[in-house]
Amino acid sequence: MNKPVQSKIIAGCYCRLSEDDEQDGTSVSIETQTKILGDYCRDHSMKVYSFYQDDGWTGTNFERPSFRRMMTDAEKGLINTVVVKDLSRFGRNYSRVGTYLSEILPEMGIRFIAIGDDVDSADGNIDYDLMIPIKNVFNEYYPADCSRKTRQALVSKASNGEYIGAHAPYGLKKIRVRQTRS
Fold first, then answer.
1. Is residue 162 part of a domain?
2. What's the average model confidence in pLDDT over 172-182?
3. Is residue 72 part of a domain?
4. ∠ CA(32), CA(116), CA(51), 5° rounding?
5. Whether pLDDT at 75 is above 70
6. What pLDDT, on a 0 to 100 scale, did the predictor assign at position 138?
7. Domain range for 25
8. For the domain that residue 114 is a member of, what is the CATH number?
9. Most CB atoms closer than 10 Å: which of 24, 131, 139, 160?
């Protein structure tokens, strides 16, 4: 059963960055996310209780330390809204994200906002019901696709005789080989 909506919005701002996100080159750094969430909360008259930051954690794992701390704070009633940059920052597991958004957070009376995906559970708009599952499927697919592409590139380099380790073996130096065009 849903708790009554509180008039004062107390936000838990959640930021997450995995190692795969860093390699992607997109501007989803913890600092960027923090600024976006802080600006959003200020512009919408929301009090920020805390910024919860999991740096270097994959979104497929829901045992992230700051995520667990945020959920504990929600259970204690310290926050009544969760704000994220986009759905992929919250998580990358289709079924787990769906369970949180459709069952766990509503049962706790927690409002959910994903700024970049234009999701606000308080709006009750049709996009919330139809688009979130589709976006979550793509968000879950992303890490698997990155892993597949990385493995494929490493196999290709190794089969071409290129060294794929991070450091040259003891006594050797790495040199950059120029690629020639055929």
1. no
2. 65
3. yes
4. 45
5. yes
6. 47
7. 10-141
8. 3.40.50.1390
9. 139
Instruction: At 2, list the tokens.
Output: 């849903």
Residue position matching structure tokens 């959910």: 112
Q: How confident is the model at residue 174 (pLDDT cuts 50, 70, 90)?
A: low
Mean pLDDT of the chain: 79
**Nearest partner of 111 among 46, 50, 58, judged by Cα:** 46
The number of residues making up the chain comes to 182
Longest dimension (CA), the chain: 69
